[in-house]
Amino acid sequence: MFNKTIFKQTLKSNMRLWFIITGILIAMSSLIIAIFNPATMEQMMNLMERLIEDPALLATIASNFSLLNVLAMNFYTGMGIILTLIYVIITSNALVCSHVDRGSMAYILSTPIKRTTVVITQAIYFVIALLLMYTLLTLSGMVTAQMFHGGVFTRAYTADVREVADFLNMDRSTVADDLTIIARNPEAVEIGAQARNIDVDVYIIYLDMLIAEQQATEAEEITPPIEETPEERAIREEMERMAEEMAEDMQNRFMDGVEAAAEILEMQATSLIFDLGLIKDDPIVLVAASEAAEMHPMQFVAIINMQLANEQVMQDAQVNFNIPDYIMLNIGVFLLMFATSGISFLASCLFNLTKNAMAIGAGIPIAFYLFQTMAAVGEDLEFFRFLTINTLYNPMRVIGSGTFWWQFVVLGAIGFLLYAFSIKIFKEKDLPL
């Protein structure tokens, strides 16, 4: 059922295209990972402000702008799919139909090798080639992330932790695990703020937030959960509701102040929200913003500092390279290409002429990709998602703790059934021998 000679010949014939496509995929993915820098978020968001006028919405998008999000939104829904489609379409035709069309299949089958052995060998090659392609892509992405950001094979440390640890001549892990070491030392605080390129008062708030998070985590580990009575739960929920309302009101007033400051600075509020230091540095602008927000200037500055500290926390999280999520991204796209390649392989086994095989083997996968793209445009075209299997792979759902296992199972089942049907079709059809 498997022939080594045919496999080796197929490998030699298709090796060049495989190396080209795999190399481009690895280069593009590695480039995105290497150049990702949360500190340049302002530049990227400034490009989006032309499309999004709501500053609050833009801030929400920025909070989800992580390294894996960038990969998911760009590579795994764009060029990462298109390049693999090119490989799938060309290779599927070369594996079976091209041999029939050129007449070389007659020579192969004139030997004792059976049809089933030929088509199964070609199918095995196709699947292994795709599997190896995404295995190398996964490994290269992890290596690139480790080189430029750390945290994949070794622990990653922020710039302030590295600088302070060197200054205090302490182990980095010790400083990272107990940030009070920095907070208690005024010189360390100044060094940490300089390392992160932020004001000292903002850095102090940033440290307080992380220290509180560390202490809360430690408390959860040593303190067993306490069951609430219905009355206690009702009180807690009411307090949380009131706190949310107060926070929402404060945020709305703050945004009124930002918009007032933006008018004086003659810039858009969506740009100013990512450069709040401009308000702090200009007394006239600060007073105008405070009046519009109906706050004392010191209160307005305190909110700005809190916002800036939150940005620092988000930047730390945005570089976090979640290995399980990254692996699942690649497993998902492999399963999508496995199912898609099944369509192209079936067309290659079904037709004897290359033009017919290419029409179906290329037409359907390309149509599926276009349908997915159209479905993402707006609600009016959302029905197109029911006309393509590509919507079974949603990268944002994979990295967003959504449900995706059943979609993966469906894609795997589709691919398996298509390859099985392809083998059956080729075994039983008439060939122009």
Task: Describe the 3D structure.
By secondary structure, this protein is mainly alpha-helical. It folds into three domains: 4-152 and 321-428, no CATH class; 157-226, no CATH class; 230-311, no CATH class. Helices cover 77% and strands 0% of the residues. The longest helix has 36 residues, at 230-265. The chain is elongated. The chain starts with a helix and ends in a 5-residue tail after the last helix. Mean pLDDT is 87; it is low at 42-52 and 56-61.
Shape: elongated
Question: Low-confidence parts lasting 5 or more residues at pLDDT below 50?
Answer: 42-52, 56-61
Radius of gyration: 28 Å
Rounded average pLDDT? 87
| Range of helix content | over 70%
Number of domains: 3
Oligomer: single chain
Taken as a percent bin, the fraction of beta residues is under 5%
- Terminal CA distance: 21 Å
Descriptive labels:
0% strand; 433 residues; single chain; mainly alpha; 3 domains
